[in-house]
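dumping this here before i forget
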Amino acid sequence: MMNRLVNAALAAAMTFALAGAVQATEAKPKKEPSAAQMAARERMSKCSLEWKEAKAGGKVDKDMKWPKFWSACNKRLKDGTKA
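structure:
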């Protein structure tokens, strides 16, 4: 008898906890990215395409890694110069 009461209480507590978690996630509206974030994403996409093309064409040094390429490409795009 005691086990049934404990199981029922645990089941009820879990149900309320899950219902509260679902309501909490649904209540928050999704925040739109800022203009700076959108610009950074666009630069990353452009640099990613350049990286893939350069890597496929064999124009990248064998010791060059994505973070180093991204840093140089991002700086170049921020300055507004072309490759």
